TrEMBL record:
Superkingdom of this protein's organism: Eukaryota
Domain DUF7041 span(s) in chain numbering: 22-105
Name the record gives this protein: Putative tick transposon
Biased composition (Basic residues): 212-231
InterPro entries assigned: DUF7041
Region feature Disordered, mapped onto this chain: 207-243
Length: 272
């Protein structure tokens, strides 16, 4: 028994795992799942095709085992692990044509970071993307970014694609409150118009309230004719109280006219 690896020797230089637990099958990316499985085999020094085959078969979910029933019923006598791996990848991995179609038409940023989008695009390209600066990949990646991020990255589009994706991550993080990769433009316009209408109504209400506070009880202005009428009534009342006419009350002895009745001293029938 190898205490460091938890494996026991078979006498031929190979080892079998004790209590080996493989990760759950990942239907979204079977190739990545096999990479994890083979890492476990390497750590436990599991090298034989037969041992690897039975470990993989025991880790398959029931629905996948049912789909592979024709393969599992008749395992080949040689290279059983390589055969089951090939069959799983062939049946569970999307065809190259469908992956390219998804890359060109349906793969969007959504709620992911730009670097995550780039990673997914490379997965869809598969073996066609060994060169990280592939022109079509760069162009598709930039097209999927929001316009604000593209404008910010415009001076740096000649950088390596990974570096460009890192910059896009930082821009997206700072611009998160104002940029939305899933927002609908029509809905945004309607929201802006509704907000503008509310601001206009509020501005009008504030102006009216301000005017009311400056002039809380302003009495209505009287017309000039009403003022003249009031003045005449007041003068007539004063004339009746003193016995003198308005002219003598106003000008005294300098009055050139007199209005009867008037008892101003010095008045004589001849002076009127």
């Amino acid at each position: 028994m190898d205490r460091n690896t938890g494996s026991s020797s078979n006498g031929d230089g190979t080892f079998s795992a004790t209590q080996l637990r493989l990760p759950a099958f990942w239907a979204k990316n079977p190739r990545a799942w096999f990479s994890q499985v083979e890492a476990q085999f390497h750590l436990r020094r599991i090298t034989t095709q037969e041992s690897r085959y039975y470990h993989v078969v025991s880790a398959l979910p029931p629905e996948l085992a049912d789909e592979l029933d024709d393969v599992l019923a008749f395992p080949p006598p040689e290279n059983a692990y390589d055969h089951i791996k090939e069959m799983i990848l062939a049946r569970k991995t999307a065809s190259e044509a469908s992956r390219i179609q998804q890359l060109l038409t349906t793969e969007e940023l959504g709620d992911r970071r730009p670097s995550q989008l780039l990673h997914r695009m490379r997965q869809l390209l598969g073996e066609r993307a060994p060169d990280q600066s592939l022109p079509i990949l760069r162009e598709l990646f930039l097209q999927r970014l929001p316009q604000g991020i593209r404008m910010t990255l415009a001076p740096a589009t000649d950088l390596p694609l990974d570096r460009l994706a890192e910059m896009a991550d930082r821009v997206a993080e700072y611009a998160a409150p104002t940029l939305s990769g899933v927002a609908d433009n029509d809905q945004q316009c309607c929201s802006i118009r509704a907000l503008e209408a509310r601001v206009d109504a509020l501005t009008t209400a504030i102006a009216e309230l301000s005017t009311t506070r400056r002039h809380p009880h302003r009495p209505p202005r009287r017309s000039p004719s009403r003022r003249r009428s009031t003045s005449r009534r007041r003068d007539s009342s004063q004339q009746r109280a003193s016995g003198s006419c308005w002219y003598h009350q106003k000008f005294g002895n300098r009055a050139f006219k007199c209005q009867q009745p008037c008892n101003w001293q010095g008045n004589s029938p001849a002076s009127h």
